[in-house]
Amino acid sequence: MIYLRPTAFVDSPFGLDKRTMRLAGGLVWFSAIELIAVDGGRRALTELIPVDRLDEAIAALPAHQRSTAEATMARIVAPRPPLVLGERTVRLDQPQVMGILNVTPDSFSDGGAHVDDPEGAAAAGVALAAKGAAIIDVGGESTRPRAATVWEGDEIARVVPVIERLAAAGTAVSIDTRKAAVMEAGLAAGARIINDVTALEYDARSIEVAARAKCPIVLMHHREQPAEGTPDDVLIEVYDWLAARIARAEAAGIDRARIIVDPGLGSGSFGKRVRDNMALVNGLALLHGLGCPILLGASRKTFIGALTNEAPVTERLGGSLAMALVGAQQGVQLVRVHDVAETAQALRVWRGLRDEALTPR
Q1: Residue of 80, 258, 336, 354 marked catalytic
Q2: Is-catalytic flag, 214?
Q3: Is 138 in contact with 103 (CB distance < 8 Å)?
Q4: Which residue has the higher pLDDT, 40 or 145?
Q5: Which residues have CB under 8 Å from 186's CB, separation 6+?
Q6: pLDDT at 212 exceeding the cut of 80
Q7: Phi, psi dihedral angles at 72 (to 5 degrees)
C-alpha cells in the first residue's frame, strides 16, 4: 500500500511557483510529500519527494499504486466544504474551536460542574461560544477509563434540556454520544453534529440514524486496549482503520463530505500509550489523504501530564495549547478543547502570522 503525507510546510507560496501545494484548501502550504510504502504492516520504503517532482514520481509507480496515489493527492488538496449547521455555517478553511461541555458527574476533567443544572450548563455553553467556540460539544456520558455505562434514558435527560437551550440561543451544537437513541434525541433537540467516539460501532442502529439525519458525523479511532509489545505503525493503523469506517459509512448512505475524522488521542479507553499519541501528532497530516476534515482532541489528556512531570488535569493548559497549534500547523480543521478562550486566542495569533505571511508584498 502507498500512503502520502504532506510535509515541508512553508510560510508562503509566493515566489515558489509549482513548488508548493495548498493543504485541503486551508491556510497551510507544503513543499514535499513523504511517500510511504507499507508491506505486511510495516514500512518498506519512505521517500521524500519535492512537490515539483511529484507528478514524475507518481507516474513511475506501478499502475495500481499510481491510481491510489493520484486519488490520495486529489483528496489532500481538495478544499473541505463548510459545515452547514442549521442557521450557522462553520468554515473549514481555517482551524475552528469545538468547546467541550460535559453534563456528567464523572468526566475526567470537568465532571460534576454542570450535572443536574441545565440552565447553568447552557449558560456555560453560551459563554464558551462567546469566548470563541464555533461549536459546543455536549456529552452526557464519561469516556474516561472504567467509567460506568449510563442508561440511555438518563443520558437523554442530561443532554436534551441543555441542547434545547443552546440551540434556542443560536449556538451550533454537537451531541457527543455512542447511543442511537441519544443521537436521535439530541438531533431533535437542536444538535447538528453527531460525535461518536466509537465511530458508529457501539450501537448497531447508530449508523442508520446518522445516515437518515444527513448531518455531519465525527468518526473517532479507538482501541479496546493499548497494543502489547512492539507495536506496528500506529499512524498507518489509524489511517487504515478510519478508511475502513469511512467506507462502511459510505456504504450505509453517509456522504464522505459529511464525515469528520478524529485520530482518538488519549490513553485508557482509547487504547493508546504516550508514544502512540506522539507518533500520531507528529504524522497527523497523513490523515488529510482520507479527504475529510480532521478533529483533534488533545485537551488536558493524560499523555500531556505524562510529558510534564505528571501535571494534574487542571495544570495542562500549556500542553493543550501546544497540541492545538501543532494541529493547526498541520492543517487540522477542528480542535476540541476545554480551555476555549485561551485556545481561541492562540489560534487568532497563529492566524495573524499566517495572514502576514500570505499578504503579497
Answers
A1: 336
A2: no
A3: yes
A4: 40
A5: 138, 156, 159, 160, 163, 173, 175, 177, 194
A6: yes
A7: -65, -45
Model-level pTM?
0.95
Q: Tens digit of pLDDT for each residue in 65-74?
A: 999 999 999 9
Phi and psi at 113, nearest 5°, equal -65, -30
Beta strand 96-102 with 88-90 is: unpaired
The answer to whether 9 and 331 have CB atoms below 8 angstroms apart is: no
Cell numbers 469528520 correspond to: 260
Three-state DSSP class for 218?
A: strand
Q: Residue 181 gets which letter from DSSP?
A: H
Residues 5, 165, 192, 301: which is the catalytic one? 301
Give the span between the Cα atoms of 107 and 129, in whole angstroms: 21
Residues 6+ apart with CB under 8 A from 71: none
- pLDDT of residue 158 exceeding 90, the answer is yes
Distance CA 175, CA 193 (A): 6
Nearest 5°: phi and psi at 62? -55, 155
SS3 142: coil
48: left (phi over 0), alpha (psi -120 to 50) or beta: beta
Listed residue (49, 45, 53) closest to 7, CA to CA: 49
C-alpha dist (Å) from residue 32 to 24, 54, 130:
15, 8, 38
Residue 259 to residue 247: CA distance in whole angstroms: 11
Specify whether 179 is catalytic: no
- The stretch 191-209 carries a mean pLDDT of 97
Amino acid in the structure at residue 237: E
Q: Are 190 and 168 in contact (CB under 8 A)?
A: yes
Our CA angle for 328, 332, 333, nearest 5°, is 110
pLDDT tens figures, 79-117:
999 999 999 999 999 999 999 999 988 665 565 677 778
State whether the Cα torsion 25-342-261-204 is positive or negative.
negative
